[in-house]
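TEACHING EXERCISE
Course module: macromolecular assemblies
Task: Read the component lines below, then compare them to the predicted structure of the full complex.
Student: A.B.
Group: 4
Components provided:
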Amino acid sequence: MARSERKASVGPKRRARRSAAGKPKSRVRTYDSPGVTALAREERSWRERVLKESLAKIPERRVAFETDSGIPIDVLQTPVSRRAETPADIGLPGAFPYTRGIQPTMYRSRRWTMRQFAGFGSPSDTNQRFKYLIANGGTGLSTAFDMPTLMGYDADHPMSLGEVGKEGVAISSLKDFEILFEGIALDQVTTSMTINASAIIALAMYIAVAEQRGIPMAALGGTIQNDMLKEFIAQKEWIVGPRPSVRIVVDMIAFCSEHMPKWHPVSISGYHIREAGANAVQELAFTLADGIGYVEECVKRGMPIDSFAPRLSFFWDVHNDFFEEIAKFRAARRMWATVMRDRFGARDPKSMMLKTHAQTAGVSLTAQQPINNVVRVALQAMAAVLGGTQSLHTNSLDETYALPTEEAVTIALRTQQIIANESGVDRVVDPLGGSYFMEQLTDEIEGRAYDYLRRIDELGGVIRAVEQGFQQKELGETAYRHQREVESGDRIIVGMNGFKNDDAMPIKLLAIDNSVVDEQLARLAAVRAQRDAGKVSAALSAVEVACRDEFTNLMPPVIAAVKAYATLGEISDVFRRVWGAYREDIAS
Amino acid sequence: MTTAKQKYKLRILVAKPGLDGHDRGAKIIARALRDAGMEIIYTGLHQTPEMIVSAAVQEDVDAIGMSIMSGAHMTLFPAVMELLKAREATDILVFGGGIIPDEDITAVKALGIAEIFTPGSSTQDIVKWIQENVAQRA
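Instructor-supplied answer key:
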């Protein structure tokens, strides 16, 4: 980024924050004292004499230092560089703008949830894993689905060839959900479902299974990822285009805020944006822009902001640049609180609190010397904890190759337990708050992310920006630059382009049994043979009618359709018929 | 270098078979090959083996590079090789990249896949390999 652009980013951000801070008393500056004026003189002379002499003798290793997202890092930070800071910019934990955390006591009261994502093979394989986790004290389930399920194809569709059960559990009909959650008390666990394009069908199935067991939907707790905007930006699992996709998301937010008070209907995700190549600033900006997009659409529907905003939650990646990642979590909370209060007029503090899940960066792991990945994951997990996450998934050392083995998953979980029980970082709230460097990084990331938010607004909002491929191009550039830096050796990745080791470090890998496919196909065929065909076609017609009327919420007819054993693929076909299957413009 | 085979631009189809949407690698490769002076046709996401082979034949490419991250490579690579045989287009060299375990690499090479690039491969290695191994079709 050009230097002039960088300077431009500081002004508007400061103005935005000052107006956000509100009352005049907040204009009092934290470091505005005669002592700091004196320090400023000392620092000037230190830079002119001490620093210069030192550099003459021992030059720095690089011409300039910067964070992984390109923020320049000066040799020293002092209160002098913080003279514009006001106490209100940072605030106190549990209070606006939540820079220091959303709860007053953070991990002193309750540690983050260690939520490990799992799912593979057939519904009964995953059901067994769930029961194992519950037997070992787990109360939170987290479900991964296979690619056909995520793209709205049944197991017997030609597009599903080779993919059934491979990267998660295979789901085609309600029958599969009945098996997946067999013997699990749905009113006593919370379930996280990582599914987006077909999320409405998965949630409908979850509601239907609960109802079969006499559990009302109001008693169900959990989260469904359901963030379609980031699919178009990064993960690229879709059924129909951005506009109908967002309409379905908003239908689900509306339905859940009315009927499912314990359910989080969307987890606004930076994770996939980062993994696809974005840097920390882009991850933050594009994700908040997605959040703003959903909120705008809900508000357009006439939903009062505080009726749904408390149910929104976020999901960050935690990458390698330790301080920058921590600053990202802090900046995210301050920005969301400010946007919710000042842009959308939220009054309920819960609407302003950014709650987040986090996951260590899969993309940072190396296939070479895979045991080293344990160390990367530990550092990243530490950053997430210092950043104040509410829950965390730690990746396994073997994930560049395959779904993790049980042994690898256990090491990943133990990593969190060591941080929680042995490192002592859980004894204090926001321990890096007030570090000149940390606060400067938080401000700088925030300023740059606000610049992106403005550019997205100028493009006509997030949906328009996604349709034009703006975010896709921006993160593609960053990914390519990163690759060039690795190949030129400017960026060293231990074991990959530096400190290489010819000895292979063999590890055990998990293989997925191909018998899953036959089992899945047989069950699907039985469902199709046994169900009442008339009921199915009537239910699918009702879904189609609802699709064509934007004032009808799609959730009730989709629930009715899954109860009639219409399949995930058949319901998705209705979406494709009404709105057209989405194809990406590959120019981006 | 002025070897005969570089008189014309090599035409390479970069393909993304299957349902996984992880196109970061495919796009980086496409761009690096283009920067190295090759002509690149990128299929976009979610391609069936039929779509890939049809595109390769229609576009008269010299090679196909396929990127797979979902674990479906043991189904999708063989399907592409079968279809190339059926279309009598086995002179199109096929290479692949993605998360592919060692024993599967041996298996797909036995099917005629010329090379597999695993995570950590540099784009320059891939460019060099193509320049050395891909011959312009007649």
